[in-house]
Amino acid sequence: MTAQPSTEVSTAIGQRSLGDPSLRFPLSPPLLTGCPATSSEEMQYPLEIDYDYARVPRDLLRQPPLPGLARWAPLLPPLVPELSMGEGGTALIESEAIGRWLGLDLPVWLKDESRNPTWSHKDRLNYCIVSTAVKNKAPGIAVASTGNHGASAAAYARRAGLPCVVISTRDAQPAFVHLQAALGSTFLLVERDARWPTLQRIIDETGFMPASNLTRFHTGNPFGPEGYKTIAYEIWAQLGHELPGTVVLPTGYGEMLFGVYKGFRELKALGLTSRVPRLLSAEPIVRAPLARAMAQNVAAAEVTGPGSIAAGIACTVSSYRAAVALRESGGRPLTFHDTVLREAATQLANDGLWQEFSGVAGIAALHEAIQRGETIEEPVVAVLTSTGLKEMPATVPPPPAEPVSLDRVIATLKKA
Amino acid sequence: MTAQPSTEVSTAIGQRSLGDPSLRFPLSPPLLTGCPATSSEEMQYPLEIDYDYARVPRDLLRQPPLPGLARWAPLLPPLVPELSMGEGGTALIESEAIGRWLGLDLPVWLKDESRNPTWSHKDRLNYCIVSTAVKNKAPGIAVASTGNHGASAAAYARRAGLPCVVISTRDAQPAFVHLQAALGSTFLLVERDARWPTLQRIIDETGFMPASNLTRFHTGNPFGPEGYKTIAYEIWAQLGHELPGTVVLPTGYGEMLFGVYKGFRELKALGLTSRVPRLLSAEPIVRAPLARAMAQNVAAAEVTGPGSIAAGIACTVSSYRAAVALRESGGRPLTFHDTVLREAATQLANDGLWQEFSGVAGIAALHEAIQRGETIEEPVVAVLTSTGLKEMPATVPPPPAEPVSLDRVIATLKKA
């Protein structure tokens, strides 16, 4: 439990289909393979959580955006307050340097999600998922992930006293291997193609709740993306109860994209704002299934393509919820090249902030869009997702064997 | 600049000697080798910053404890708002599990300083130091550090556009080597004994401002510890404007210990509270110069002894400011063994939180004190200082070569 959580309870009333929003299902059991009514072999539609907005306290969203998601409890699924690790309440940092590099008129606002309990945005999602698992008496948590998602799921599961199995691959970053060992997860390293069948079999045989997706097109756990709504609440509060023109987000399966869109939609529905900012997704150009789906005007797309240094978001399928977020916010999909991503990471480090490559995707994609002459509505918020500490090489190069000449160093420093 | 910083200016009026508090020096130039009047070859006394408390806005400390230290500007040295990276505003997390492990009556409150811009408490200090360097037109920043202190100084220097030289040793953690490369610091690896002479020579020849200490007994940069006062302001606010009974802190040279003490002293001086919580320092028992100084009733002590896995706080000298903080808060020095520290880190990971070893020092020291039968005034706040991601081994062990039997894994999960 974090300090001073809200004592209000959730106003959640059911799971609503995104495939047909007129369809609502009970809150329990969680529907973990998409909408059962509108999904087919060809396409799977996610669900979202529906609330009784009339029962939401009028001043809830006007509170200071401090850490601890339980403070937004009426607008989230039923939470277990004791599970909170003070997720959220992350800093919004004004960067003139990044604004200049992008060629914008104004500084850019950076929402630094590396300031979370496991140092990524995923904590907002997993606090909701593990709370849902506890409320539904799931015997454990299972997640297929090579990175932040699995790290965060494992931490919340551990805190809840639930066993957690993380299905990863042999090329998992050392930082995550190390972290999973510290958290005492069951950590399975399988071939890439074996991840989903392994997850499915574990779910089937153990009854563990999945914290990741089980369908061909991404549907996921409908309770997770709700946690990301709080990013929108916080941005609005941190800008002095004003909206930005644009929010750009690193985008894999689009859970954060949808959550942030839904948060802004709720601010409007509750009468606190009169519009929704344009949301822009940022995908590696080598795959970019969401950009493909939008271009082809289909619900979701599957692509092939080489990998990206933005490993956390180089997905081969998109989700319908991501398309909804872009379309309903008047936004659009952006892409980036790895070369620009590296340059964006360097520009950000020059401003003191060191992110993993996926975390800088929004800035890289914006840079390419502006270079192409696209118009971006300011002010811009770019969501940064995770610390650069997680992308350490397995072996750090040893320091130079040659003794360094202090005279030469000092001469160089004097010229700097 | 972070969102909505305070527009109030600093009420700082000078540098006050801790050796003789009746002595006050101007705010500039910064006195970087201790109090010039009371220090001698045998003992060096630090300075602190003095304020015109009558000019501090009455409601300043009643604002919500959000990120961005500039919001406390009247009670801090003159800051450069644009340098802020939204430091501070870190979560305070209630832990029943740690309270139980310690044998306390109440849950323990954990102040998680890994939620800062470079994922350690040091950002509060370095924002103040680099601001001071900019205000005093220093041409660069120089710091002797193998860890968090240097990482943080480098980030703020980079953001300020100042060159930064970090003097480290060949056993620096890979995470820090990696981070310094990302931030573009000049990173010198020297023998342990060569660190201070190298720093001194660089300072002398370049005029760079030191972010670390230049004297035998620690005096340091007097502007830095002021940043730690905000931890006290935040704790008081996060507990609903109530004080804890005890605050326990990982302690090396005692800059954070003194800063937190001073923050509580100011809350009392400004009429907001009627007492100061007991502050307890936590040092590795293999060295523990502060515990030695307190036992011998001297201003500071120098010790020898083997190293500790709590590398960030295994110091061989103490500072007078640390003794002041313990004495004036009615506190005392605690120590811990590395075996207990490992157990404390595991207990904390079982609660979902993964810290570097130094970060868990407070919990380990408390555990030993309570096992000895010492009385601890509750509620207790333990300050955690940095992420476990920074203590990754240089080479992570490869995953097992044997294929894992999924049947066996599932059988184990079912029994969990």
UniProtKB/TrEMBL annotation, chains A, B:
One of its GO terms (molecular function) is threonine deaminase activity. Its cofactor is pyridoxal 5'-phosphate. Residues 84-385 form the Tryptophan synthase beta chain-like PALP domain. One of its GO terms (biological process) is L-serine catabolic process. InterPro entries: Ser/Thr_Dehydratase, TrpB-like_PALP, TrpB-like_PALP_sf. Residues 1-14 have a biased composition (Polar residues). Keywords: Lyase, Pyridoxal phosphate. Residues 1-25 are annotated as: Disordered. This is Tryptophan synthase beta chain-like PALP domain-containing protein.
